[in-house]
Prior knowledge:
By secondary structure, the chain is α+β, with helices and mostly antiparallel strands. It has one helix spanning 55-67; strands at 19-28, 35-45, 51-52.
Amino acid sequence: MGINIKLLGRCPDCDSPNIKDVIEDRPSFxxxxxxxxxxxxxxxxxxxxxxxYDHNSMVYMEAFLAKKNLLPRVxxxxxx
Length: 80
Ligand SMILES: [Zn+2]
């Protein structure tokens, strides 16, 4: 789990409306190696602690990993 579609301001886990947009570090494991991605915007349930990552969060995290050359599938392209 961990990746959920945004659900109209309700927690996908406990259905609580007590969720807020937060910005926190998030661990990622590209290729099995632990990487901390800083300042990832996402929604957090303050009742059960469930986090929801929407499309923007995923794009942000992928961009961070790509910048560090940590994405498993890196496109190799010859550019002259
Ligand atoms: Zn919850």
